[in-house]
Amino acid sequence: MPPLSRWFIKTALLYLVATFVTGVLAVLDPPLQAIPGSGRLAIIYYHLFMLGWVSQLIFGVANWMFPVRSREAPRGNEQVGWASYGLLNGGLALLLIGEMLRAASSGPAALWLIVLAYLALLLAGLAFVLNTWGRIKGH
Amino acid sequence: MPALTRVAVRAALIYLVLGFTFGGLLLSNKGVPFAAALWRLRPAHIEFLFVGWMVQFALGIAHWIIPRFRGGDFGRTELAWLALGLLNAGILLLAFGPLLGLGGWAQAVGRALEAGAAVSYGVYIWPRVRPR
């Protein structure tokens, strides 16, 4: 299994744990009010699950198992692959921080973090599609 | 990689980009509000990522990697193609029904189309889920 796939899959497993921990907190915290910004936990839960776990696992397995693009570049452009990993996880981190900050305060920093998260996640998706499209082939 | 897998995976990747784009517009609009009407993209964002990306990708890959019959035969592939057609019709109806002002009936029909896709794909793939 190539290094990039190992990173995607191991990170996805960490996000799976984080998803379920967030799910527990989302249920427990409303009566306790112990976590600032816990009103955003439900939306964070869904994004951890869909992006951190499901999409990241698919990215890793597809990078490993899809037909090779060519002998010279079997998995497409490695740098674009690593960029999709960095952007996906950077974007997710920004999204989580932005959502928590937004719930805890009304300053502009949280808003701009959320916009930056959008850009990073969109670029992550585009990088993955760009690197994978040419590997969808018969032989 | 067989033709049905190529079609399903490419469609899934298109939904991934569209789903991320819609989600990004929703997030940005939440960060720096610029168009309240963008909130109407939320059903499309959810449907494209949950069903268009995740479910369709899984169905396409399952068609490719689940054991085939003797001689490499896939079985009744017309059912798998029907499933893809129903699934995508359902996704589009559920995503764009609210934008087009279609009533609750569109949601019901969309979900029924997706259920039909699940039945059709299940009948197709069931006999291939076996020991080699």
What does this entry look like structurally?
The complex is a heterodimer of chains A (139) and B (132). The mean pLDDT of chain A is 89. In chain A, helix 2 (41-65) runs antiparallel to helix 3 (78-104) and helix 3 (78-104) packs antiparallel against helix 4. By secondary structure, chain A is an all-alpha fold. Helix content of chain A is 78%, strand content 0%. The relative contact order of chain A is 0.15. Chain A has helices spanning 3-32, 41-65, 78-104, 108-133. Chain B has helices at residues 3-31, 42-65, 77-96, 104-125. In chain B, 37% of the residues are buried. Chain B is mainly α. Chain B is built from 4 helices and no strands. Chain B starts with a helix and ends in a 7-residue tail after the last helix. Chain B is elongated, with a radius of gyration of 17 Å. The mean pLDDT of chain B is 92.
Task: Provide the residue-averaged pLDDT of chain A.
Answer: 89
Taking pLDDT < 50 over at least 5 consecutive residues as the criterion, the unreliable ranges of chain A are: none
Shape of chain B: elongated
Strand/helix succession of chain A: HHHH
Structural class of chain A: mainly alpha
Q: How far is the first residue's CA from the last residue's CA of chain B? A: 19 Å
Q: Return Rg of chain A in Å.
A: 17 Å
Oligomeric state: heterodimer
* DSSP helix fraction of chain B: over 70%
Q: Sum up the overall morphology of chain A in one term.
A: elongated
Largest β-sheet summary of chain B: none
Order of helices and strands of chain B: HHHH
> What percent strand of chain A?
under 5%
Range of helix content of chain A: over 70%
- Can you give the mean pLDDT of chain B? 92
Could you provide a short overview of the structure?
The complex is a heterodimer of chains A (139) and B (132). With 139 residues, chain A is mainly alpha-helical.
